[in-house]
């Protein structure tokens, strides 16, 4: 097979899988490591792919990763305070669910007490696995590459078999009728986890009151505690009070 024909087929396979390792290219086209490397260099020089550690990816995957990293850097000081305040609510031995959220990542970083944590977030897992006194349980399922979380039937089935002492959730936006998220699959996982929890605790900095998003996960009346970085204004204090949601302002 000529190189140009093979490059075309590599691109077709990459469009299906979005990422490919050098090993996968070698096996799919029965070529040597050196030949696979030359093909990768050629595609990279054309701008058709980006090189990753051990393979290639579509350019938009890199943009997605950079977008996610960018969100991690927003309102860092506020998120750190919120994460610390949330960690103080967890008692030794409790079983909790941590959702996918850049703010919940700071909860993971501040968690000290021995506990059992279930999470569908790849980033939460990478932080928690380093803590020897925390029992970490990964929620399985399909993987959303953009926001790095698992979802789907397998995740739903696993969550429905567990009772949590608390579910800690982030929020893309807070509206008068509840908390919202950009992706339906994300909202679905949060809704199920919340239904299995004794307490639902939402971690959200004050900017989330000014935002809009697509899919409702929970109405305000289902939220037991909201941890935020500033006192909500009178309008939001009244809405939260009406729904019996306790407000915790994270300290310095």
TrEMBL record:
Residues 3-58 form the HTH deoR-type domain. One of its GO terms (molecular function) is DNA binding. Keywords: DNA-binding, Transcription, Transcription regulation. InterPro entries: Carb_Metab_HTH_regulators (IPR050313), DeoR-like_C (IPR014036), DeoR_HTH (IPR001034), NagB/RpiA_transferase-like (IPR037171), Tscrpt_reg_HTH_DeoR_CS (IPR018356), WH-like_DNA-bd_sf (IPR036388), WH_DNA-bd_sf (IPR036390). Pfam families: DeoRC, HTH_DeoR. Gene3D superfamilies: 3.40.50.1360, Winged helix-like DNA-binding domain superfamily/Winged helix DNA-binding domain. SMART domains: DeoRC, HTH_DEOR. PROSITE patterns: HTH_DEOR_1, HTH_DEOR_2. SUPFAM superfamilies: NagB/RpiA/CoA transferase-like (SSF100950), Winged helix' DNA-binding domain (SSF46785). This is DeoR/GlpR family DNA-binding transcription regulator. It comes from Anaerostipes hominis.
């Amino acid at each position: 097979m000529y190189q140009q024909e093979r490059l075309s087929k590599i691109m077709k396979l990459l469009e299906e899988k979005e990422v490919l390792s050098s090993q996968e290219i070698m096996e799919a086209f029965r070529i040597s490591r050196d030949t696979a490397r030359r093909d990768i260099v050629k595609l990279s020089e054309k701008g058709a792919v980006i090189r990753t550690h051990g393979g290639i990816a579509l350019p938009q995957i890199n943009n997605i990763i950079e977008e996610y990293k960018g969100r991690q850097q927003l309102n860092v000081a506020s998120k750190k305070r919120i994460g610390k305040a949330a960690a103080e609510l967890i008692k030794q031995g409790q079983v909790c669910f941590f959702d996918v959220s850049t703010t919940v990542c700071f909860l993971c970083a501040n968690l000290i007490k021995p506990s059992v944590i279930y999470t569908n977030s790849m980033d939460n897992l990478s932080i928690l696995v380093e803590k020897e006194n925390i029992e970490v349980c990964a929620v399985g399922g399909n993987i959303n590459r953009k926001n790095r979380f698992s979802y789907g039937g397998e995740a739903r089935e696993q969550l429905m078999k567990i009772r949590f002492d608390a579910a800690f959730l982030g929020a893309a936006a807070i509206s008068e009728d509840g908390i919202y998220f950009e992706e339906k699959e994300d909202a679905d996982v949060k809704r199920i986890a919340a239904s299995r929890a004794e307490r639902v605790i939402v971690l959200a900095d004050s900017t989330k009151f000014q935002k809009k998003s697509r899919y409702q996960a929970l109405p305000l009346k289902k939220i037991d505690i909201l941890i935020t970085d500033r006192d909500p204004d009178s309008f939001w204090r009244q809405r939260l009070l009406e729904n019996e949601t306790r407000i915790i302002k994270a300290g310095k």
